[in-house]
Design brief:
The protein is an alpha/beta fold. Helix content is 38%, strand content 21%. It is elongated and about 75 Å long.
Length: 316
């Protein structure tokens, strides 16, 4: 009959598309049916059946084996791009709903950060946030490395602020600040007034470094080893403030990140860039890819903006 409207698509009431789509997304993400089954706490045959049912329903092949991994086909890539945000949105629905009804004027915000970030980077950000969100109870968790990531993954904190070298697949890192590596010496040290300083010039002097388990020590060791320059460690001690104090006392020299240097430090130590030998360190925001940030967390992140620094690397 002329003018008849096309029939609307019909779906079976009992059809459950979430389970096969979740199984498909996990298989693509992990590259293995067995790993997907383990992550979803179901049997491997159950995942296989769901994937087969999804391919029959859509009439295309979604996965193909490449070596020991399962990779999405061209059609699988297209489905993954569509299905992933839907699955993650539904999985996070409870948390997002609770956040919506909690309100915007009161609540909690938990942020993980290391000592250096809390001491040097966050004070101005925390002050601005407290002025704009006086009803929010802000908690700063002084943790670093894997401990901070564990809190993030367990939803014990909303986000983390700090420096990352290797970013796990389930996390997102947005670097905001860049800080140069700096040589610090006493004001009357021979290297303090030398026009140019080479890596070899540091060899005669003992270094004061953080403990070996920390990234700074390992990075210093790597650079010296690659350049085949000998060096000695006079003292290992934690905390940039302690290191700066010991350098000012003449107990050694150190290589630090410019994040810890302030205007006040000009009066007691000399600082100069070692960017020719050591890479800069980035600091930024770390979040879970599968978690939607709360309104409070977004407001906090919006305040994290780079500030200008002078040529010596010292904060104004």
């Amino acid at each position: 009959m002329a003018g008849r409207q096309p029939a609307a698509p019909r779906f079976a009431y009992k059809a459950d598309r979430l389970k096969p789509l979740r199984a498909f997304c996990q298989t693509v993400r992990l590259g293995s049916v067995s790993r997907a089954a383990e992550s979803l706490y179901v049997s491997q045959p159950a995942i296989t059946l769901q994937l087969q049912a999804l391919e029959r329903e859509l009439g295309v092949k979604l996965l193909e084996r490449s070596g020991r991994r399962l990779l999405p086909t061209r059609e699988g890539d297209a489905l993954y791009a569509l299905a992933r945000p839907l699955v993650e949105g539904l999985d996070g629905l409870d948390g997002a709903f609770q956040e919506q009804i909690r309100g915007l004027d009161a609540g909690d915000l938990d942020v993980a950060a290391g000592s250096s970030t809390i001491l040097y980077l966050l004070p101005g950000i925390v002050d601005a946030f407290r002025q704009r969100q006086p009803g929010v109870r802000l908690r700063l968790h002084n943790v670093t490395g894997a401990s901070g990531l564990d809190l993030l993954r367990s939803d014990a904190v909303d986000l983390a602020v700090g420096s990352m070298l290797d970013v796990p697949a389930d996390l997102e890192y947005r670097p905001v600040y860049q800080f140069e590596p700096m040589l610090i010496t006493p004001l009357d040290h021979p290297l303090a007034t030398r026009r140019e300083v080479a890596l070899e010039d540091l060899s005669p002097y003992g270094l004061i470094l953080p403990p070996q388990r920390l990234t700074t020590y390992r990075l210093v060791d790597l650079v010296f080893q690659r350049n085949r320059v000998p060096y000695t460690v006079a003292l290992e001690v934690g905390g940039w403030e302690v290191i700066k104090q010991y350098v000012a006392m003449g107990l050694g020299i150190s290589i630090v990140t410019a994040i810890c240097l302030t205007e006040l430090d000009r009066t007691r130590i000399a600082a100069r860039s070692l960017a020719a030998y050591f890479p800069s360190r980035s600091y930024g925001v770390v979040t879970r890819k599968s978690r939607r940030l709360s309104a409070h967390a977004r407001a906090f992140v919006d305040l994290i903006q780079p500030a200008p620094r002078d040529g010596t690397g010292l904060a104004p």
